[in-house]
Amino acid sequence: MLDKARENLRLACEQLKIHPDVFEELKSPRETLAVTLLIRMDNGSRRAFKAWRCRYNDRRGPTKGGVRFHPNVSLDEIETLAFWMTFKCAVANLPFGGGKGGVCVNSKELSPTELERLSRAYIEAFSSFIGPDRDIMAPDMYTNGIVIAWMADEYAAITGEPLPMAITGKPIAFGGTVGRTDATARGGYIALRHLEASLNLDPAKATVAIQGFGNVGYHCAKLLHADGYRIVAVSDSRGAIYDPDGLDPLAVMEHKLHNGGILGAKGHGETREISNAELLELDCDVLVPAALERQITLANSDRIKARIILEMANGPITPEADAALTAAGHIIVPDILANSGGVTVSHLEWVQNRSGFYWDNSRVRDHLKTTMSTETQAVWALHNDMDISMREAAYVHGLRRIADSVEARGTQAYFSGT
Ligand SMILES: NC(=O)c1ccc[n+]([C@@H]2O[C@H](COP(=O)([O-])OP(=O)(O)OC[C@H]3O[C@@H](n4cnc5c(N)ncnc54)[C@H](O)[C@@H]3O)[C@@H](O)[C@H]2O)c1
């Protein structure tokens, strides 16, 4: 994955005539630490887990990125995700570089006490690698609030400082920020609403299908529904529901809380069950993938009908499918822009921890709105001016900022006097 990302970067640097020094720096991660965590299991045995943390590039500030617990985590995945975080933070104009971490584990197989030991062991192993001015961690797949609280608690114990600014996504009672829960969804919602006129979208008529009804999918559905968009389909890991007359996200969530899933929830008309594959292929105005990576590939891209795809998940469209969809005229609002609201509000948590002054929800939301609208506009303008896709435009936007910070320290041109 990293080789592919690197090749795309090389082409972008050449096309934009970015100084070769910039590519030389960005083609490899700055540092990656690999460790083996040895955990005492509840039955008294010892088990080893591979773990990584990568600081890809820190020219724009300390590296920032989540830590995931997943059985498929690998070094290549961590370094590629850290590469993407470098660009996402630059697109959102945050004073951060990109980082990522992970543990190769199926956390569902661990007891709560084993999970706590693993979370604390991760911090112990990486305590001198991370830091509020060095590398700032955050939640990711299967590292929820309690895992982050254990990690923050362990870091506080190691450093002797009660408020661990090296970790964001903390519970509010532990120095977290208001407005983080729906920040990712709200960011994508702001981006879409900002583009409404340009995309010729009328909320009173537009239909939306959302894959995934977790944190991001649910809040996206709620925000768009409140503004008049008709949510015609939502899904979870067990399947999807479709109602051409529309679904009420609050009612679907109520059903999910009582029944453990969305299947069986009723909308305004004749609601029926469909598969997740069918949801992706629905004839609607906006498709919002908000579940997993690699959901749209060359195997199904020619059946995608939605004119606009708002990528709330990370990497839901493969590069090959992305090229096919773009050529076919679909507008894809790319992940590094669409879901950057989460890291934008995480930055505010870090700011509040450092200043000791805590913001209210409206201030957090105002800041998010300004950031998302400004950066969405900048990406949209590049998309039009350079006649490139929104994804390419987002990468160009981020790359220019990163390149500026590399070039500010002097390039070959400066040192050789040419
Ligand atoms: N939460 C954030 O702040 C944040 C930030 C940036 C990116 N993201 C990305 O957004 C996506 C969703 O994150 P989340 O926080 O909402 O996760 P979540 O775990 O809260 O929700 C995921 C949802 O996807 C559903 N799902 C799982 N497998 C599915 C499948 N095969 N088909 C359809 N649905 C399926 C789950 O049932 C669940 O409803 C992820 O790709 C994540 O990386 C999240």
Automatic annotation (TrEMBL):
<feature type="binding site">
    <location>
        <position position="184"/>
    </location>
    <ligand>
        <name>NAD(+)</name>
    </ligand>
</feature>
<feature type="site" description="Important for catalysis">
    <location>
        <position position="140"/>
    </location>
</feature>
<feature type="binding site">
    <location>
        <position position="215"/>
    </location>
    <ligand>
        <name>NAD(+)</name>
    </ligand>
</feature>
<dbReference type="GO" id="GO:0004352">
    <property type="term" value="F:glutamate dehydrogenase (NAD+) activity"/>
</dbReference>
<dbReference type="InterPro" id="IPR033922">
    <property type="entry name" value="NAD_bind_Glu_DH"/>
</dbReference>
<protein>
    <recommendedName>
        <fullName>Glutamate dehydrogenase</fullName>
    </recommendedName>
</protein>
<feature type="domain" description="Glutamate/phenylalanine/leucine/valine/L-tryptophan dehydrogenase C-terminal">
    <location>
        <begin position="177"/>
        <end position="410"/>
    </location>
</feature>
<dbReference type="InterPro" id="IPR046346">
    <property type="entry name" value="Aminoacid_DH-like_N_sf"/>
</dbReference>
<keyword id="KW-0520">NAD</keyword>
<keyword id="KW-0547">Nucleotide-binding</keyword>
<dbReference type="InterPro" id="IPR006095">
    <property type="entry name" value="Glu/Leu/Phe/Val/Trp_DH"/>
</dbReference>
<dbReference type="InterPro" id="IPR006096">
    <property type="entry name" value="Glu/Leu/Phe/Val/Trp_DH_C"/>
</dbReference>
<feature type="binding site">
    <location>
        <position position="346"/>
    </location>
    <ligand>
        <name>substrate</name>
    </ligand>
</feature>
<dbReference type="InterPro" id="IPR006097">
    <property type="entry name" value="Glu/Leu/Phe/Val/Trp_DH_dimer"/>
</dbReference>
<dbReference type="Pfam" id="PF02812">
    <property type="entry name" value="ELFV_dehydrog_N"/>
</dbReference>
<dbReference type="InterPro" id="IPR014362">
    <property type="entry name" value="Glu_DH"/>
</dbReference>
<dbReference type="GO" id="GO:0006538">
    <property type="term" value="P:L-glutamate catabolic process"/>
</dbReference>
<dbReference type="InterPro" id="IPR036291">
    <property type="entry name" value="NAD(P)-bd_dom_sf"/>
</dbReference>
<feature type="binding site">
    <location>
        <position position="88"/>
    </location>
    <ligand>
        <name>substrate</name>
    </ligand>
</feature>
<feature type="active site" description="Proton donor">
    <location>
        <position position="100"/>
    </location>
</feature>
<dbReference type="Pfam" id="PF00208">
    <property type="entry name" value="ELFV_dehydrog"/>
</dbReference>
<dbReference type="GO" id="GO:0000166">
    <property type="term" value="F:nucleotide binding"/>
</dbReference>
<feature type="binding site">
    <location>
        <position position="64"/>
    </location>
    <ligand>
        <name>substrate</name>
    </ligand>
</feature>
<keyword id="KW-0560">Oxidoreductase</keyword>
<comment type="similarity">
    <text>Belongs to the Glu/Leu/Phe/Val dehydrogenases family.</text>
</comment>
